[in-house]
């Protein structure tokens, strides 16, 4: 395939029988080892065990554990890295970001069991315990009880290039009951609420693969909604690569997973700071071959964050961005929306909820880019 005299490279979800066999993944169930380390020290790569949550008192937090720091992903040695963010009910923000020597980290391949200095996380898709030592005045001790099964779209790997040279992944436990304590403002604070966990790994940087993505989850009274709507970069033909699932809140089971057939309609609105048009409303219709169908709508009400990553980058990085036509802007939104789920041959049910989602827009605006 040729576009403007440039060959369009392949981008795909690895979900074929031969893909499962090649990767040693059981297509029938997610196994504990899949949340263990998946990258190798002696290869270029990045990996993160990510946790976040919203607590009943309004506190929000996130924490990430990495075998290699973002700056060290091209080096053939580990550089264990952790970061944490807490926003108090009063709106005060607290952060920490620490890198350790290779000998101060360990990352199991049997399950999620990662250690960076005195900080660690461990779990098995059913329960997780997370500890961030408040060495610089910000920390946490939290326990997760999974309320949904893990969600894996295909093998979880999106492959790029005609020989699957590059990949990026996401494996998630979208909804968990959270209890424990957070340390900030010089004291421990008892908390409880709802949290999220995912595990991602890749062998190149995001901006080399994608034009944009929408990532988030919505908690409704009936269902937990998970979405990671990827659109590949121009050199991959703006291929749409959605990960989308619906989990029943009573059973925690995945009751719908897209088979890749969907339509998207958006209402665009200029971003308040820079003027580039982002979706104000996104309307998805996922229709599977078995006749099951989900309509998913989300409209943002408040912009929580905006970053122009190009302007924040140094001169050398901007030159790299220019060479590949990238001009990244990032938004995080508070939104409201809903789902209408019709199982194959079944009755339609409707549910509504709030949502916090991110929209990472890395490529230049293009009418063909599915924004």
Question: What's the SSE blueprint?
Answer:
Elements: E1 2-3, E2 6-7, E3 11-13, H1 17-23, E4 46-55, E5 60-66, E6 81-87, E7 93-99, E8 105-107, E9 112-116, E10 119-123, E11 127-132, E12 139-146, E13 157-160, E14 166-169, E15 171-184, E16 187-202, E17 210-220, E18 223-232, E19 240-248, E20 254-257, E21 262-270, E22 277-287, E23 293-308, H2 309-312, H3 315-323, E24 326-342, E25 349-363
Describe the structure.
With 371 residues, the protein is mostly beta strands. Helix content is 5%, strand content 55%. It is built from three helices and 25 strands. It has helices spanning 17-23, 309-312, 315-323; strands at residues 2-3, 6-7, 11-13, 46-55, 60-66, 81-87, 93-99, 105-107, 112-116, 119-123, 127-132, 139-146, 157-160, 166-169, 171-184, 187-202, 210-220, 223-232, 240-248, 254-257, 262-270, 277-287, 293-308, 326-342, 349-363. The strands form four sheets. Strands 7-6-5-4-16-15-12-11-10-9-8 form an eleven-stranded antiparallel sheet, with no helix packed on it. Strands 20-19-18-17-25-24-23-22-21 form a nine-stranded antiparallel sheet. It has a three-stranded antiparallel sheet with strand order 3-13-14, with no helix packed on it. Strand 21 (262-270) and strand 22 form a beta hairpin. The radius of gyration is 20 Å and the shape is globular. The model has no long low-confidence stretch (mean pLDDT 95).
Structure in a nutshell:
The chain is mostly beta strands and 371 residues long. It has helices spanning 17-23, 309-312, 315-323; strands spanning 2-3, 6-7, 11-13, 46-55, 60-66, 81-87, 93-99, 105-107, 112-116, 119-123, 127-132, 139-146, 157-160, 166-169, 171-184, 187-202, 210-220, 223-232, 240-248, 254-257, 262-270, 277-287, 293-308, 326-342, 349-363.
């Amino acid at each position: 395939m040729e576009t403007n005299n440039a060959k369009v490279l392949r981008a795909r979800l690895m979900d074929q029988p031969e893909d499962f066999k090649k990767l040693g993944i059981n297509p029938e169930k997610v196994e504990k080892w899949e949340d263990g380390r998946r990258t190798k020290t002696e290869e270029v790569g990045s990996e993160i065990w990510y946790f976040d949550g919203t607590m009943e008192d309004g506190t929000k937090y996130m924490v990430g554990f990495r075998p290699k720091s973002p700056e060290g992903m091209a080096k053939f040695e580990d550089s264990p890295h952790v970061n944490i963010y807490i926003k108090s009910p009063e709106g005060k923000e607290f952060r920490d970001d620490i890198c350790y020597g290779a000998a101060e980290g360990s990352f199991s391949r049997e399950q999620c069991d990662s250690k960076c200095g005195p900080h660690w996380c461990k779990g098995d898709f059913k329960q997780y315990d997370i500890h961030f030592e408040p060495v610089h005045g910000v920390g946490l001790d939290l326990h997760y009880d999974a309320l949904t099964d893990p969600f894996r779209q295909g093998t979880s790997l999106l492959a790029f290039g005609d020989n699957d040279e590059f990949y990026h992944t996401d494996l998630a436990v979208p909804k968990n009951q959270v209890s424990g304590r957070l340390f900030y403002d010089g004291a421990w604070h008892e908390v409880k609420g709802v949290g999220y966990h995912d595990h991602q790994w890749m062998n190149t940087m995001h901006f080399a693969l994608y034009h944009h993505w929408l990532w988030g989850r919505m908690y409704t009274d009936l269902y937990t909604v998970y979405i990671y709507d990827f659109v590949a970069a121009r050199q991959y033909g703006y291929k749409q690569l959605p990960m989308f699932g619906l989990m029943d809140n009573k059973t925690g089971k995945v009751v719908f997973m897209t088979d890749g057939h969907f339509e998207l309609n958006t209402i665009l609105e200029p971003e308040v700071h820079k003027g580039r048009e982002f979706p104000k409303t996104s309307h998805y219709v996922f229709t599977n071959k078995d006749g099951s169908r989900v309509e998913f709508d989300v409209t943002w009400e408040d912009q929580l964050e905006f970053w122009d990553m190009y302007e924040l980058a140094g001169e050398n990085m901007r030159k790299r961005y220019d060479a590949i036509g990238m001009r990244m802007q990032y938004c995080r939104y508070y939104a409201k929306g809903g789902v209408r789920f019709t199982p194959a041959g079944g009755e339609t049910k409707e549910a509504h909820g709030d949502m916090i989602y991110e929209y990472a827009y890395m490529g230049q605006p293009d009418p063909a880019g599915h924004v």
